Amino acid sequence: MATVEIEFLPQSRFVEADQGADLLQVARASRIDIESSCNGTGTCGKCLVQQTEGEVSPPHPDEIQLISREDLSQGVRLACRQKVSERAAFRVLFGSERKHRILSDGLMPKFELNPKIRKLHVQLDKPSLHDAVDDVSRLERALEIRFSERIPLAILQQLPGLLRAEEFAATVILSGQDIIGLEAGNTADLSYGIAVDIGTTTMVVSLVNLATGDELASSTMINPQKTYGLDVFTRIQHAQNAGGLEELSLKVREAIDALIGDVCLEAAVNREYVYEVAVSGNSTMMHLFLGVDPSSLGRAPYSCGFSLGVTLPARELGITIASFGEVYCLPSVSAFVGADIVAGIISTELLHKDERALFIDIGTNGEIAFSSKGKIFACSCAAGPALEGMNISCGMRAADGAIEKVVINPNVELHTIGNAPAIGLCGSGVIDAVAELLQAGVIASSGRFVTLEPGAKQPWADRLRTESGSPTFILASGTGSNSTIGITQKDVRQVQLAKGAIHSGILVLLRSLGVDLSEIDRVYLAGAFGCHVRMESMARIGLLAEELLDRVTLVGNSSKSGAIVCLLSQVKRAEAMRIVQGVEYVELSCYPDFDRLFARCLAFPNSSAEHTA
Amino acid sequence: MATVEIEFLPQSRFVEADQGADLLQVARASRIDIESSCNGTGTCGKCLVQQTEGEVSPPHPDEIQLISREDLSQGVRLACRQKVSERAAFRVLFGSERKHRILSDGLMPKFELNPKIRKLHVQLDKPSLHDAVDDVSRLERALEIRFSERIPLAILQQLPGLLRAEEFAATVILSGQDIIGLEAGNTADLSYGIAVDIGTTTMVVSLVNLATGDELASSTMINPQKTYGLDVFTRIQHAQNAGGLEELSLKVREAIDALIGDVCLEAAVNREYVYEVAVSGNSTMMHLFLGVDPSSLGRAPYSCGFSLGVTLPARELGITIASFGEVYCLPSVSAFVGADIVAGIISTELLHKDERALFIDIGTNGEIAFSSKGKIFACSCAAGPALEGMNISCGMRAADGAIEKVVINPNVELHTIGNAPAIGLCGSGVIDAVAELLQAGVIASSGRFVTLEPGAKQPWADRLRTESGSPTFILASGTGSNSTIGITQKDVRQVQLAKGAIHSGILVLLRSLGVDLSEIDRVYLAGAFGCHVRMESMARIGLLAEELLDRVTLVGNSSKSGAIVCLLSQVKRAEAMRIVQGVEYVELSCYPDFDRLFARCLAFPNSSAEHTA
After folding, report:
1. CATH fold for domain B192-329
2. Which of residues 156-215 of B touch A (CB under 8 A)?
3. Do the domains spanning A3-97 and A117-183 agree at the CATH topology level?
4. β-bridge pairing A402-408 and A424-425
5. Radius of gyration for the alpha carbons in chain A, expressed in angstroms and rounded
6. What is the pLDDT of residue B2?
């Protein structure tokens, strides 16, 4: 087979490669370090290279999905999707140069470090004729613990030899009151856990030191299930196909396993010292992760296969940590109020605060929890993906070139992620645009675009056009497939549906309990959403009442924070179970006249501009 | 390859077989039913065939070990050790024709049926919008049980589909409060367990109906570890060799698995409906079964790796029952007071009886337990294998041709197992012979053979000879390698050592507690030993004081009975743990002046004959 020379930059390493070979494989074979969480399956978007010499190939569909248009035009590609054809040079782009914006941090509550996994180095008395008690009981005596009858076979087999080789000392790994592992020598300080948030769109994995409580490293990637549908319902549908459930489950488990590899590499931690993985996510994600048929989540009466917290052997799930390591799945309340919301309630300490608080997590489904005097009520509303920039004519996810901020003052000012030429609008851009259009009087509170008199004087007048028979407000001329970037009447309707769903959800929840908006002490806003959207814009479109704005706390990725809290505190973990059992789920569709309320909530608040218009 | 014709009788089936082929394989390939618990490894001795045509091959060492000389001479062979060479005919000898005598029955106490494994067919409420609780919690609610957090992954995966396919009904398999399995339809009546007694020499497996408590079938075989040594100490030594422990463990697990196949076949029970295996045996056997290094059992201070009862997944031990089935190992007290003794204490209800009782299990080690007012004391004495017919010049195990009964009246009358020509002496024969020699005045209470005057008139006088410089009493002319069968001075010494060890053990135990023999209400005699030895002979050699004879109850294989009791009663199983924690182990070597007491116990009781001699 013919070989050609490939140069890797910045090292300027020259490598002979077979024509037709996979570039990622070529790099790996030559020990050139290229990140790839998905192991070359074209889903993680980490193995970015920029071709600096030779003819750049047309982008692969996976590359179009994962790389911004600007980067594509500059020769950025996925190493795993490049085939060697002729002499070429590639610059390896490292993690810091990746541009996807996934929220991986979250607010952490204060609590005492009391992890379920404990490592103890113990010295036992040596046996004598007067104290010939067996090794297991001797260990129990030293630990002052009585083990369960279901002690692992590996421990029975390991213990006698290990004790006698180590002068009757050993390092013991306990999970609660159960012994799960044994190690020679004193390795008590080497105790790690992993927190996982499986989002429908993105996944976040964090490495946590169980002995100190420190978060050591974090890594994120696009949920590889995305190939099978953007929202939970299409994934539930795919799971009904032959082999579909196994496929979805395997994808997410492999992704978690790869991300664990990433964070352990980054923090220089041997993954054999990782003993527990705490997993949070919405109910569909949790079902798919465990390979449990989610079909009942997708149709009335929307019941889960399981919802209470479960602990499973990591090895049964193909997750390679310590051979006896465990996976803990956080509990969930219902099909729509998942472990991610329970994690949020834990990380915001909603149950403990002496205040009336709302917890709002806006995604394709909006979940809302309300706490009052130690009691929690929750509901879920079908917001749709508009607020995430999906189902919008020029929508895109938060990546380079996405318009994330819009100001009409009265000229149109835009801000894009990475200051790149505008390609489309991400969620925060959509909300900002609609808010500004309302403020400027381009849209009425009904959601309709205004009809301008011919020769209207507004500086933006020429931007309001009719395209394909529908009013459209042009924000920018685009690059690539969107020749212009704008907001259409249909886009505004999508935003109305989303904000109406959430707004009505909040109202029903509060009205069911006889609570007025003014009585709310605090609003916790979870997720990437809250961190990137301007508060004023949220208020302007009526997603959040204006009077609540000064009471908002952004909590970030509270699903991940809650998983970390559960790793580090048995008390908080027990609390998660109590939360689940105590949460009262309010079924919106059962609220009298819900449809009318929802219809009313579709309208935007009156804006000052409209009054004067 | 050349083929020859093989005829199988009694069916008279003619089969074409390749020269050099294994006869057992040939039979199996032609669906001719030949039992083989060990799957052709030459250890179970079940695949007996008798060659009726063609030249009989010289016996293989395994055949010499497992088949009596008489049978060997009549062409009986193991099918698994025969290679096809020329035209031949073989008669398949079925189970009933096997001649090994292994005690498989034991005394059973009365108790309420309350097995740890329960199968319940439950009907759940169907989910509705007003009751959308998850499937697992729904099942918990129907069963009025809260499952452990460690619910098996397979159940999470199976439950949603099974419930929806079966109108929300299911058969649930519970182990205590834990759910371990699910089955479609109503299979609640199909619930089976296996009780196993792993003896150093023989193994017994019983199939038990957990729903009714009935014992359905039982099967036995020689412990295949026997190849690696007859007693526990040589096996402990073998376990120190590279791969030795794994080898010993695998052998016994495979044997149990094969025996389970036998009993399930016999009772026409699908082994997927077997959910639990309860295993009893001495401490070394339990360690080897689980693959736990037994070396600490073989040297001071004689401590166990484990002793409390443990429950393990059957599949981890290579035991093929229900995929989620469990193996329960009965608890033991110490290195020498094993689970077999705990099982005996349970099956004799020693703890509950309002009497002072001795429990004696005589084997290579003699174990003695004494109960008084709910408290149990135990000791172990190194009897050696003489009472089992081992380490005796013409000793053999209980099989066809073994002298099991001796009467000198004054002529010598012998009885052999199977009424076959005498080949040697089994344990009961040895004891009988020594007892009769004492009674007849051939042996003095010191154990020495008498010296006869020349021309002595006793009818047996010509049987007392000097062979290889040592006095020997000839019982019979033998067949095969033993040209004569007799008892030598050394044999008598071995018996003295054994009975001295047990006698002194009983005395120390009673003296430690200030109890006199006359205060003993009952003596439970366990094992094959008690069932085959004449009580009077035991008394005559001083193994058991004469005054106790009328208080003896033979309890048979109480190790197996105890395992069955543990399968059927959670109450009794909990009791086993209490027994273990309550038993006080009396270390004989710590008793003051034990050596002198032991020396005194070597002497036989004075016999009437000796007084008149």
Report:
1. Nucleotidyltransferase; domain 5 (3.30.420)
2. 156-157, 159-161, 164
3. yes
4. parallel
5. 27
6. 86
Identify any residues that bridge with B367 across adjacent strands, giving them in sequence order. B361, B380
CATH of A3-97, one of 3.40.50.300, 3.30.479.10, 3.10.20.30, 2.60.120.10: 3.10.20.30
**Residues in chain B closer than 8 A to A300 (CB atoms):** 129
φ, ψ of residue A168 to 5 degrees: the values are: 60, 35
- What are the per-10-residue average pLDDT scores of chain B (613 residues)? 85 86 86 72 80 89 80 88 91 53 62 95 93 95 94 97 96 96 96 96 93 92 85 92 96 96 94 98 97 95 94 97 98 94 94 88 88 90 83 83 89 88 90 94 93 85 88 82 84 94 93 92 83 85 89 90 96 93 88 91 74 38
**Predicted-assembly ipTM surpassing the 0.90 threshold:** no
Q: Are B2 and B19 in contact (CB under 8 A)?
A: yes
- Give the model confidence (pLDDT) of A371-420 as tens digits: 988 899 999 988 877 888 888 888 887 778 889 999 998 889 999 888 88
B310 has a chain A CB within 8 A of its CB: yes
Min distance B534 CA to chain A CA atoms (Å): 37
Q: Say which residues have a Cβ less than 8 Å from residue B592's Cβ, sequence separation at least 6.
A: none
Neighbours of A501 (CB within 10 A): 22
- How far apart are alpha carbons A27 and A25 in whole angstroms? 5
Interface test with B, best of A138, A140, A157 (most B CBs within 10 A): A157
**In this structure, what DSSP letter does residue A387 have?**
G
CATH of B349-383+504-558+569-601, one of 3.40.50.720, 1.20.1440.20, 3.30.420.40, 3.30.413.10: 3.30.420.40
Q: How many CB atoms lie within 10 A of CB B610?
A: 19
Domain ranges of chain B: 3-97, 117-183, 192-329, 349-383+504-558+569-601, 386-495
CA distance A149 to chain B (A): 5
- A117-183 architecture in CATH? Roll (3.10)
Q: In what order do the strands lie in the sheet with A215-222?
A: A215-222, A202-209, A192-198, A274-281, A326-329, A310-313
DSSP B70-82: HHHHTTEEEGGG-
DSSP state letters, B251-318: HHHHHHHHHHHHHHHHHT--GGGEEEEEEEE-HHHHHHHHT---GGGSSTT---S--S-EEEEGGGGT
Nearest to residue A197, comparing CAs of A264, A256, A156, A249? A256
